[in-house]
Amino acid sequence: MAYPFPGMNPYLEDPALWPGVHGRLIVAIADYLSPQLRPKYFVAIEERIYQTTGDDKVLVGIPDVIVQNSQTAINPKIPNIAVATPAVQPKTVTVPIPEIVKERYLEVRKVGTKEVVTVIEILSPKNKRTGEGRNAYETKRQRVLGSSTHLVEIDLLRVGEPMLVFGDGTQNDYRILVSRAENRPQSDLYAFNLQDVIPSFPLPLRTGDSEPLVDLQSLLAGIYDRASYDLVIDYSQDPPLQLSEQNAVWTDALLREKELR
Hints:
261 residues, six-stranded mixed beta sheet, two-stranded antiparallel sheet
């Protein structure tokens, strides 16, 4: 089935699907750019690793437990011997344990020197909510913004707090930030909504070099097809992440028009 939305597909924001979408999009962008950047640049897939707990906790597996109402219980391994039960019964609780998080991103580097020219980030849910994930990303972001490296920041998630920029007073569903080192603090913000086509943008490189246009819309439609997401998404149901009233009405009409509802 063809990609059903003109822009971002809100069903791909499903927490159960997004890690796969994120990983495939990283690889798709790298594969798309690599032949266009030869022979001066190459694209490296890198990984950021951090540890998180608290709100981002991973829960220890807890087996089902039946609490006895009586004050004594019989130990099945020692027949006919009564075992005293504590007067206060414990509750089963969960504790936060460290989770190792790995997030992939792209670096465009110069051939020969391996100098990082451009960093391309696709935000994850952990980057957009309070916690170690956001702290780790913001630290990396500030380091890049304070350097001579360009930054491309792609936000295809409606949930969470957008990354800080100044001068944008609008409320939009999605954003792409292109921050050229030589133009900072001014940067280009491509802000768009669910009903819009995802805007294409030029990949910033060193002055004088030809900059390829990144067509995220085509890349996303491509991975939707290759990953067979149409087989796992139930368009008769609302997206797992709630839509605004306006977007919900528009989405319902679109899916009915395409006979998916």
